[in-house]
Amino acid sequence: MNTMKLAERIKQREFTSVQQEALLSIIVTGSWILGELASAMSKFGVTPAQYNCLRILRGAAPEKLTCGEIGARLLDRTPDVTRMITRLMKAGLVDRERAEHDRRVVEVWATPKGIELLKEMDPMVDAIQIELMKSLSDDELRELTGLLERLRTS
Question: In CATH terms, is domain 12-130 a member of 3.40.50.20?
């Protein structure tokens, strides 16, 4: 973990406002967390966005989802869901087919191999989440979650 303060990290002595400092802190922290997750997940051959997609499909099972439905649920709004699905399909982790009710619609689902990969990754993801958040108490984490929710929904 990097113990460097924000101002030191971005080599900026002063911020134009408390709003700027808070926003930059959120961006830098989010980037750091995503980097840690990406590093851990790379050992399994998937990115955080691909992992998120697989989790979405696992949660929807036995229903199949369209690319649009997957895109709407992704944590990180990836503009090219179709390309991500194609990569996951080449790895054998998802499959897709045209919908019976409307041939224009493509439906996607996680394969047994994709579900097995998630089962294998679950303990590691749980452990890294605990590790990344260990410096905050449960009450602080709830407060942080509430503040971020308020920021997103205001």
Answer: no
